[in-house]
Design a protein that fits this description.
Elements: H1 3-16, E1 30-34, H2 41-57, E2 61-65, H3 72-80, E3 87-91, H4 93-98, H5 109-112, E4 113-129, H6 137-146, E5 152-155, H7 161-173, E6 178-181, H8 185-193, E7 199-203, H9 204-213, E8 216-221, E9 247-255, H10 260-274, H11 277-285, E10 289-290, H12 295-316
Parallel strand pairs: 1-2, 1-3, 5-6, 5-7
Antiparallel strand pairs: 3-9, 4-7, 4-8, 4-9, 4-10
């Protein structure tokens, strides 16, 4: 099934779930600001949420792409709107837990945003080209230790999820891989499949098509335990690298100070859908595991991820020019 068909199917699933209690708060159009361009996984998930909330709240929810600066321009746009509960941010690691620790931004995420709803997330996967002589995660680690710096890894750029996921692997495994940054996932994957770099540690949805076609082979997955997305793939920890977990998340946030009634209404709508097996199946086709949970739990998750990311950036001495 093509990606566009998956989006439509997921939206249809959302519409099929019974409407949640509205709580009497939202009485006019809502807006979800998507801090990345159309067509990517953030855009797709945000538009699924927009359809879900339109159905559940009885109000139109529009999605708007506001791109630039690794997602920070879109985040700033939400902070420029009133804290009235009608403007949401489609949140991902970039503008919330990564970029504010690498670049000078005009906001502090955990102070200026209120976590609202945790839709789900996607694990990192360690991949090689289909004809790579490296057949397992243990072989990759063994070769990297035998010849430090000889093996290379591609990423979507300095400070990207792929870059940090690979640096975390290097740190936890005690190995040295040479970083080859690109301007996006597509050119990085092209060079991986062409044999110009040896491996890649990327968000599963971003490389799902290459895995599905057989052009790329998965060595391990970055979840704490085996994932239902790739049940036959071992975790990085199973392959001998302890304390490794890399998980890209997606959720909705509002400007701090937004009414509790607005936060709770959106949270209830998202959680009700997350409990639907049908929506879970559709998200799985997009490479996403549903999560859900209360706003306070989402906040604790973001606090932990912010701390972990900061520690990695300092340890690996990651900087952007």
């Amino acid at each position: 099934m093509k990606r566009r068909q998956l989006i439509a199917a997921a939206a249809a699933t959302v519409l099929a779930v019974p409407a949640a209690a509205q709580g009497g708060f939202h009485t006019r159009q809502l807006r979800i600001v998507i801090p990345f361009s159309a067509g990517g996984s953030t855009d797709i998930l945000a538009r699924i949420c927009a359809q879900l909330l339109t159905d559940r709240l009885g109000q139109t929810v529009v999605a708007e792409n506001v791109t630039g600066a690794g997602g920070t321009i879109g985040a700033q746009r939400v902070l420029e709107a009133p804290a009235d509960g009608y403007t949401l941010l489609a949140g991902t690691p970039g503008p919330i837990t990564i970029n504010p620790q690498l670049r000078r931004v005009s906001y502090q995420p955990l102070r200026d945003f209120e976590p609202v709803a945790f839709l789900g997330g996607s694990p990192a996967v360690v991949i090689v080209r289909k004809d790579s002589p490296i057949r397992s995660m243990r072989e990759l680690i063994s070769q990297a230790k035998a010849s430090p710096g000889k093996l290379s890894y591609a990423s979507a750029g300095v400070g990207s999820f792929a870059h940090l996921s690979a640096e975390l692997l290097k740190w936890r495994a005690g190995i040295d891989l040479t970083h080859v940054p690109y301007r996006g996932t597509a050119p990085a994957a092209t060079d991986l499949l062409g044999g110009r770099v040896d491996c890649m540690v990327e968000n599963y949805p971003s490389v799902q098509s290459y895995i599905g076609s057989g052009d790329a082979r998965v060595l391990a997955i970055g979840t704490a335990r085996r994932s239902t997305l790739l049940p036959n793939v071992p975790t990085v920890a199973e392959e001998g690298v302890g304390n490794y977990e890399s998980f890209s998340w997606f959720g909705l946030l509002m400007r701090a100070g937004s009414p509790a009634a607005a936060i709770n209404t959106v949270n209830a709508a998202i959680n009700d859908a997350v409990r639907s097996p049908e929506l879970g199946q559709r998200l799985a086709q997009l490479g996403v595991e549903p999560v859900g949970g209360p706003p306070a739990e989402f906040r604790r998750f973001l606090e932990a991820k912010t701390q972990e990311t900061g520690e990695l950036i300092r340890t690996a001495r990651i900087t952007v020019e």
